[in-house]
Amino acid sequence: MASTAKTSQATCELSIVVPLYNEEANVEELYRRLTATLESLALSYELLFVDDGSRDSTFSKLLSLRTADPRVGVLRFSRNFGHHLAITAGLQNAAGRYTVLMDGDLQDRPEDIPALYAKIKEGYQCVFGIRATRHDSPFKRLSSKLFAYLMNKLVKLDVPLNSCVFRIMDRQFVDAFNQLGERHRFVTGLMSWMGFKQVGIAVVHDKRFAGQTKYPLLKMLLLALNSVTSFSFRPLQIASLVGGLTALCSVLGIVILFYRRLVLGYGVTGWTSVMVTILFLGGVQLIALGVLGEYVGRSYDEQKARPLYIIDQFYRAEDGLTDRKENHAQRIHQSALGLAS
Ligand code: UDP
Ligand code: MG
Predict the structure, then answer these.
(1) In terms of domains, do 189 and 118 share one?
(2) Is the same domain home to 279 and 314?
(3) What is the CATH number of the domain that holds 322?
(4) Residue 284 is part of which domain span?
(5) Measuring from atom 15 of ligand 1, which residue has the nearest CA?
(6) C-alpha of residue 83 to centroid of ligand 1, in Å
(7) Whole-angstrom distance, CA of residue 3 vs CA of residue 6
(8) For the whole model, what pTM was predicted?
(9) Better-predicted residue by pLDDT, 75 or 340
(10) Most informative mutation of 103, 215, 219, 222 for ligand 1 (most atoms within 8 A of CB)
């Protein structure tokens, strides 16, 4: 008889996971709007804020919220590990039957959570937001489009256009995501790869409430590179293709040279052509080596199997107000290797 995979025990109906990095100006407004929305839903919930090694007062503000409201959980990394690992830590520690994932700058509107919740109750396992409008700079919109193009065309991973991190998932989906142990991760791509019953609904994308984007040009490019190499071998295949085409060109060149020397009776003079050819071939080889190195480096990085992140402090929701300091590194390491119970 068919049966679904065993899921872990949920201790509340809804977990809201929010990664935060230097968002001191957004924390209080975010909390205010989240609680206003969730209280109107009248269900048990926890807010799990992941402080990704902020250098401003984000953490102390979160702790004040936690002191006043035990439904708030605060997890602080020992340093900045990045958006996607902060999301990962949040999902690994969320205890809800359903888990909402959203950014902490109020670009995702807490007021959209009831619509996500209502949709997943129709029997889906992941309901993701699709941004009908975007309030980002023209550059940001362009780079996002380029990114989606790369993912869909190069990697052939079907990430729906304009889909965003803002989403709700059920317990089975979150448990399945928590099985993934890779370090270089692109969360929405991985979730799309995971399968299950997913659907998108339109959500509003607001302006950032306060502060600056944490994804400047260079970080965006690195994320794109990371996503492409972690999902596909296509860059290696392109390097081989370019190598093959260049070799073909040089064979043609040799034929032409022989023809001129033997049939027409004169050879080619001048070192410019020789230099250009050598430089061109050298460049192609170096690019191919670089692409190869990217994969070897990544494979080395995964091989080391270090913990994905290190927790400095973790105040669980509903866990009393004790100043508990935990280091989950070992446990997370084990769970990444599939050893934990
Ligand atoms: N973020 C994070 N760690 C980082 C960078 C960003 O936790 O290293 C958080 C950030 O605080 C925000 C979310 O990830 O809550 C999305 O970041 P941001 O709004 O800067 O990205 P954008 O919306 O501009 O793509
Ligand atoms: Mg943002």
Answers:
(1) yes
(2) no
(3) 3.90.550.10
(4) 234-304
(5) 104
(6) 6
(7) 9
(8) 0.77
(9) 75
(10) 103
